[in-house]
Amino acid sequence: MRQYDPDLTPPWKRQRPAPEVPAEPDLVVEEVTTGFCGAVIRCEKTAQGPTVTLEDRFGKHRVFPMEPRGFLLEGRVVTLVRPRAAAPSAPQRTASGSIAVPGARARVARAGRVYVEGRHDAELVERVWGDDLRIEGVVVEYLEGVDDLPAIVDDFSPGPDARLGVLVDHLVTGSKESRIAGQVTGEHVLVLGHPYIDIWEAVKPSSVGIRAWPTVPHGQDWKKGVCRALGWPENTGAAWQRILSSVHSYKDLQPELLGRVEELIDFVTAPQG
């Protein structure tokens, strides 16, 4: 009996499999549906399947599913696939840029501490400097508000073997925050700050996929105003998770924050004497 091909599509009309191309960083491709053209920034594994983030020449980021025949490379249809992990040829680094110490155990917590102003600040510091802090034995805690700082310092009783570093939002000359910082700063207490209204602004806009952080009129809730201006739901918790998930290393943060955090870690871990 004659056998028939279950696929009745004529051979000359069938689509040929597209070549698979590893989505290596800086590879420039075009997404076939939207025409968005950009360089590969990163690949991620999600519950819906692998995705690739592209950055166009204006710095705009877009995330696309890595579907078969989903991209054009130099005019020809290709299927992007996750690149194979290469064996490390150089010392691996932590998210903060420090050289990683494979197998290192967390050090017993020091008496010294680093305080930040809120939960979002603490989560961001943990995301970028967490490995370093565990190796150094530095614990990060957060204030409920900078107004409580004098009482916290009093209760902490800083000394040569228990230094206290504090990171404050919007620490600019003449502000309430600067006056409080002046009250508590001493030999064993270092208060530093960044110029941003909130820690959200310390994340580079390009990493979040926006042109710039919007200006919110004075008197409005800043975080909700940002959500409104960007067209996001006015759910600041969800907005923060969106922002935090865009931070993968120190490269995603503004230098004004990087320097301050590094200085505080150095201060609380400096040898006595």
Automatic annotation (TrEMBL):
Show where the DUF3097 domain sits: 20-83, 113-269
Q: Which InterPro entries match?
A: DUF3097_C (IPR021447), DUF3097_N (IPR053883)
Q: Which superkingdom, per the lineage?
A: Bacteria
* Start and end residues of each stretch annotated as Disordered: 1-25
Q: What is this protein called?
A: DUF3097 domain-containing protein
